Amino acid sequence: MGVEVDTKEFKLKPMKCEFNFLSKSDGSAILSQGETVTLVSVNGPLDIKMQSQSIEKSTLEVLFCTKGGKPSVADRYKESIIKQTCETAILGSLYPRSGITVTIQELEDYGGLLSCALNCTCLALLNSGLAMRFVFAAVSCAVDELGNIVLEPTQEQATSARALLNFVFESRNKNLLTGFSEGSYSESAYEEALERCRAASDLVFTFYRDIISKYSNVI
Amino acid sequence: MAEIYKLIHPVKYFNDYISRNVRPDGRQFHEHRNIKLNVNSIKASEASGVVKCGNTTVICGIKLELATPKAEEPDSGFLVTNVELLPLCSSKFRPGPPSDYAQVVSNIVTDIVMNSECINLKDLCIVYDKLAWVLYCDIVCIDNDGGLIDACVMALISSLKTLTLPNVTYDPETEDIKVDITKRSPLKVNGLPVATSFAIFPFFEKSILLTDPSAYEEDMCGGNGANLIVCWNKGFLCGTQKFGGSTLSMEDEKQALKIAKQRTKLVEKLIETCIDNESK
Amino acid sequence: MREVYLSNCEKVFLQKVISEGHRLDGRNYNESRKLEIAFGSEYGSCIVSLGETKVLAQVSCEVVQPKQIRPNEGILYINVEISPMAAPQFEANRQTDLTVYLNRLLEKCYKDSKCIDLESLCIVVEEKVWSLRVDIKVLNHEGNLIECASIATLASLAHFKRPDVTRSGDKVIIHTLIEKDPIPTVLYHYPVCIAFAIFSNDILVSDPSFIEESVCTSSSEEGGNKGGILVVGMNQYKELCLLDLMGAAIYNSNIVHKALINAADRCKEIVDLVKKTIVDDDTSRQKRVKKNFSDIITTEHMLSLSKRDLSICLKNYNVDDIEMSQDEEMEDDEDQKPEPSKYDVVPSLPQTAEIIAQKGASSWIEISSGSEED
């Protein structure tokens, strides 16, 4: 780490996004963060089977599709993370007895797939017009061998890192909404990573705001 | 009367407790339940552990098998962990293939063990590219009353700690394998990862952290299972998972880490005491 | 979600429009929608879009044991998946008639037509062969899935390159893409499935859209079905490898002839395009231009945004800071040492230990009586 200047510039990967990529879905977005690309479609509120209806809130279904190969336990885990994040963010009580389906398709994975999928999901939800409590932004970071923190690591950085930490923040108080990690790390590294990601999430929120204002100005 | 009240106003019932700084089962917010640990009681498996965390009961059994290592990693053995949530442990589970939740729990438990690097898979290799141990760790939940991951990890680690591997001799010429079950050496386990679950309850403007939640508390806080799982191992974090439920503020997060650290020390002591007691 | 059925007036209108020589989107009978093929960064992954219909194909390979009846042949496996992403009426992880239908047609077109040299996929006879797996994911269903899926299958198979292997004695070494240049798959010919919608038994419409497909296969108002979907599988040499009719029986054989003639031209066009895009892709790869699916995101669109320089100034943590804070925490721990004594660790029964909360550690408050008063 060493003693350096007080502030340092950190870069996130370039983001590129397009709404309404799919014509049949109620909301869809394709997002690339660096070389990682995901496509998300949101359908809802829909009519669903009686047995899966809930009288209190909408039933959320999340499906994560990998590019090739058979479905695995790791996909279920990713689905569970995205589902629980969306469940908190969507105001489900406004759509009782109905279903919301979120489908995520992986297109390219060069590190940070899950955080890209989460950001893309948020954009697709915004596009679909479902009522939400807040928007959310996912930022990933890696702790390398020396204990340095790298925001949005590239694939090489991620494989050589000691730990990978992912955080999802909500837009209102920048509180932690979802977090998950790989590898082991010290408490101070965790705290530092959390604070940096929290600050960096601002950039993602600005990106959301810019893309929405770009087209909503026209309408 | 209280039962009816709970049925009619489930949220208010819970809120009433929380506003009086106590939880429905009489615990303080940061108090965890009593834990009972028993090792090596199942003689059919190579090593076993039974954990009772409050009402949550989990059994872990380890089975050994020999296999050829993967071509990509010829110097490592295998550690296969699987968590089974039978219909008997909670009314939420149905018989049939593993539910999504069971798969998620399996994945988290495997991740914690792998991330903590407490087992070096290279220790499980007997002969390079020819022979290695496979540890099948089956974790079965008997009663699910919250804090499932904590109990699973504890059962798994205490069983791994007591596991002994038989001596194997391999003849490279005849490819003959001889297993001597009388001579055994213990498996090297570095450190002791301990997970601590929290539920986060949104109470008016602030959120309240509940340590070691029961299944009822987990339901009230939303999300599937515990909201926050902190895992410590040898003074390092080896997994912080936060899913669903209310959002987590900075102070709460710091507090959670601290509570988890204290509980980890306690559980470490518990496992050590238990194993000492067993070997006596 | 249940399927949304078309109303009678929609059906009648569309049939009338078609019989008058027009189509809803303004195309001619014989005109297809715009075909685009985009390749991903990996070999054998592509997104094919036919108008708004979009299909993702990915070829992957692994070394497996060959089938006993064909010990010297590799294996080709095609898997079609339609997720709720394609259209809301599809359910997750459930096979529908449409999936089975697409899977079967693609297998007929690519497996049974023997367009792939399976023998070249053999590594060691009776022991190790390559198994190619083509995963087709439907992203958007706007009609004519079969044509789009078959182009995607063809393009991904033709684009795919498998890692090189060398045999030394018993051992088989699989080289990574960096070590040795990968080997392309050998295709004897390039078959493509072309779909036509038949209206009132004599009108042939190529590349039907979703609504045209559903109208021509459903029965008309007077009862009796007079339309159907004809799928023709043909390669670039105008050789027929598949013919499939769904819907009503055709009593006019001229229509099949007409379809075959149209299909032959269309096939040539498609195969030429596939070959050209692959050559283009190859040359750009040789120039080390990075290809990625992010290229399909258009930037000029009103609904899109691209940001290159996302940078933020953050406070750089000092080593001293961290050590300080660690020290503090250490002290904290010292202070709080006595606290955990709320619990006792006791060895009880043999092989057992317990953590028990000490008596008086928690105070039970009878709250139910209190709330009754409320």
Automatic annotation (TrEMBL), chain A:
In terms of one coarse class, where is the protein primarily found?
Answer: nucleus
InterPro entries (UniProt xref): ExoRNase_PH_dom1 (IPR001247), ExoRNase_PH_dom2_sf (IPR036345), PNPase/RNase_PH_dom_sf (IPR027408), Ribosomal_Su5_D2-typ_SF (IPR020568), RNase_PH (IPR050080)
A single Gene Ontology CC annotation of this entry is: nucleolus
| SUPFAM superfamilies attached to this UniProt entry | Ribonuclease PH domain 2-like, Ribosomal protein S5 domain 2-like
Identify the Pfam families for this entry: RNase_PH
List, in alphabetical order, the GO biological process terms annotated in this UniProt record: nuclear mRNA surveillance; poly(A)-dependent snoRNA 3'-end processing; rRNA catabolic process; rRNA processing; U4 snRNA 3'-end processing
Boundaries of each Exoribonuclease phosphorolytic domain copy? 12-130
Q: What Gene3D superfamilies does the record point to?
A: GHMP Kinase, N-terminal domain
**Mind listing the GO molecular function terms for this protein?**
RNA binding
What are the entry keywords?
Exosome, Nucleus, rRNA processing
Q: Where in the cell does this protein reside?
A: Nucleus
In the record, the note on similarity to other proteins reads: Belongs to the RNase PH family.
What is this protein called in UniProt? Exoribonuclease phosphorolytic domain-containing protein
Q: To which species is this protein native?
A: Parnassius mnemosyne (clouded apollo)
Phylogenetic classification of the source organism: Eukaryota, Metazoa, Ecdysozoa, Arthropoda, Hexapoda
TrEMBL record, chain B:
Subcellular localization is given as: Cytoplasm; Nucleus, Nucleolus
Q: Which GO terms describe its molecular function?
A: mRNA 3'-UTR AU-rich region binding
Q: Does the keyword Transport apply?
A: no
Describe the location of the Exoribonuclease phosphorolytic domain by residue ranges.
31-166
The answer to whether UniProt assigns keyword Metal-binding to this entry is no
Under Gene3D superfamilies, the record lists: GHMP Kinase, N-terminal domain (3.30.230.70)
Which keywords describe this protein according to UniProt? Answer: Cytoplasm, Exosome, Nucleus, RNA-binding, rRNA processing
GO CC annotations on file:
cytoplasmic exosome (RNase complex); nuclear exosome (RNase complex); nucleolus
Q: Which GO terms describe its biological process?
A: exonucleolytic trimming to generate mature 3'-end of 5.8S rRNA from tricistronic rRNA transcript (SSU-rRNA, 5.8S rRNA, LSU-rRNA); nuclear mRNA surveillance; nuclear polyadenylation-dependent rRNA catabolic process; rRNA catabolic process; TRAMP-dependent tRNA surveillance pathway; U1 snRNA 3'-end processing; U4 snRNA 3'-end processing; U5 snRNA 3'-end processing
Entry similarity comment: Belongs to the RNase PH family.
Q: What is this protein called?
A: Ribosomal RNA-processing protein 43
Q: Which organism is it from?
A: Parnassius mnemosyne (clouded apollo)
Automatic annotation (TrEMBL), chain C:
What are the alphabetically sorted keywords of the record? Cytoplasm, Exosome, Nucleus, RNA-binding, rRNA processing
Principal place of residence: cytoplasm
Q: Where in the cell is it found?
A: Cytoplasm; Nucleus, Nucleolus
* InterPro entries assigned: ExoRNase_PH_dom1 (IPR001247), ExoRNase_PH_dom2_sf (IPR036345), Exosome_comp_Rrp42_subfam (IPR050590), PNPase/RNase_PH_dom_sf (IPR027408), Ribosomal_Su5_D2-typ_SF (IPR020568), Rrp45 (IPR033100)
Limits of the Exoribonuclease phosphorolytic domain:
31-163
Gene Ontology MF terms: mRNA 3'-UTR AU-rich region binding
Q: Name one GO cellular component term.
A: nuclear exosome (RNase complex)
| Coiled-coil boundaries | none
Biological processes annotated in GO: exonucleolytic trimming to generate mature 3'-end of 5.8S rRNA from tricistronic rRNA transcript (SSU-rRNA, 5.8S rRNA, LSU-rRNA); nuclear mRNA surveillance; nuclear polyadenylation-dependent rRNA catabolic process; rRNA catabolic process; TRAMP-dependent tRNA surveillance pathway; U1 snRNA 3'-end processing; U4 snRNA 3'-end processing; U5 snRNA 3'-end processing
Superkingdom of the organism of origin: Eukaryota
Q: Which family does it belong to?
A: Belongs to the RNase PH family.
> Under which name does UniProt file this protein?
Exosome complex component RRP45
Protein species of origin: Parnassius mnemosyne (clouded apollo)
